[in-house]
Amino acid sequence: MKIESLCNFYASKYHLSMILLEYLKKNSTKKTQIVTFMQEDIEKEIQDLNEKYKYNINLNKIDFKRINDIYGIEPEISKDIIFIVQGNINFMNEANEYIRDLADKKSKIKIINCYDFEKQKKVMKMLIDQNDKILYTTGEKIID
Length: 144
Description:
This protein is an alpha/beta fold. The chain has helices at 13-27, 43-53, 89-102, 117-120, 124-129; strands spanning 2-10, 33-38, 81-86, 108-116, 133-136, 139-142. The protein has five helices and six strands. A six-stranded mixed beta sheet has the order 2-3-4-1-5-6, with helices on both faces. Strand 3, helix 3 (89-102) and strand 4 form a beta-alpha-beta unit. It is globular and about 35 Å long.
């Protein structure tokens, strides 16, 4: 099992939504399962941007709404999965630990950890060091 961890820092819900839509447009296939752990609802922003820019992504299978119970989500762990995690540090650590516990040896997993820049700017270096890549609007960059 290979778990690749990406981090992303966003300035607003629309900024986060744009980054995620661009990433999913380029990196998801019909075989990719997308699972979200969102502490803040970004459903409206996702829908607004998808309508305006026509991303051609089937959003019916992706839930960008706020969740209350991390452990209530039980993804199918038999294929490639992209997990999108957004929230405060404690929420994100708990979600990441849950994802790693669920991981199957046959799965190819990517975890995109999305941090609010204003709330996390004092610990950005530490957060970056905990990930393999940074996700920008333009794509992924390996952390050196």
